[in-house]
Design goal:
single chain, alpha/beta, two-stranded antiparallel sheet, binds ligand DLZ
Length: 163
């Protein structure tokens, strides 16, 4: 379903396992911080709402979405976290930078999911303009940070059950 038709903050709480005791790394891009900080807040509030404790959530910042891969990798190498959430926002401009950054972070996060035995969650908005991003950062389409947090909890639970 296209996000224009979906509210990113709507989910069935009965299908969300407890996040008690889970440890999360959250890597946040500083580019478009009006959007990414709102995504970060959504993710953290949702993790806590489902039982994670504040001391088990570590937040780190990177300059832009392109750096999310190396930031997430640095956190993964500590072997401390059960999941790492990447948060960024790429707004389509007039240059091809948009495609390069989107391709780079998508491939980077995908590769991390293959290289490590923890999930890396893609909390990255890729939009045509800032309004579309704000609509998905706590606006009329909900908050992609909430969706990223729920995905992280579900993936940690799945991996634990599969072991
Ligand atoms: C350079 C750039 C541009 C044009 N646009 C964005 C953007 O919309 N969102 C974002 O997170 N970062 C952007 N960046 C910065 C790159 O992600 C990166 O930080 C720089 O290219 C340095 O590697």
């Amino acid at each position: 379903m296209a996000t224009a038709l979906k509210n990113l903050s709507e989910y069935d709480p009965s299908k969300v396992p407890s996040a008690k005791g889970m440890k999360f790394g959250v890597v946040v891009a500083e580019w478009n911080e009006e959007v990414t900080f709102a995504l970060r807040d959504g993710a953290i509030n949702t993790l806590i709402k489902h039982g994670a404790s504040e001391e088990n959530i570590v937040i780190e910042f990177v300059p832009g979405t392109f750096e999310l891969t190396s930031g997430a990798k640095a956190l993964a190498q500590t072997r401390y976290f059960d999941a790492i959430i990447t948060i960024g926002c790429v707004i389509q401009g007039e240059t091809r930078h948009f495609d390069f950054i989107c391709n780079g972070v998508t491939q980077g996060v995908t590769q991390l999911n293959l290289d490590y035995d923890i999930p890396f969650i893609f909390g990255v908005l890729t939009t045509e303009n800032q309004q579309q991003a704000l609509d998905r950062a706590g606006g009329k389409h909900g908050n992609k940070g909430d969706e990223a947090a729920i995905t992280a909890i579900k993936m940690v639970d799945l991996i634990r059950r599969a072991q």
